[in-house]
Amino acid sequence: MTSIVIVIVTFALVYWALERNHARQAHLHSRLYGHLWGSSEVEDRDLVRLHDDLRAAADHQQWQRTLFH
Q1: Residue 36 has pLDDT above 60, yes or no
Q2: Ordered DSSP codes for the chain
Q3: Higher per-residue pLDDT: 64 or 8
């Protein structure tokens, strides 16, 4: 019986701590940055790299076609 009470109290304390931290972080973030997550003007480096790789692959294929035909 005592172990069940200890487990319930532990879960309650963890839940309380997570909720408290979540509320504090949300308030801190909105105060510091003033916008929602994901609404910044950050360049997506993966998209740029993919675009450059696809362009290079297309140029390479075109070069091979002109060289071997």
Answers
A1: no
A2: -HHHHHHHHHHHHHHHHHHHHHHHHHHHHHHHH-S-TT-S----HHHHHHHHHHHHHHHHHHHHHHHH-
A3: 8
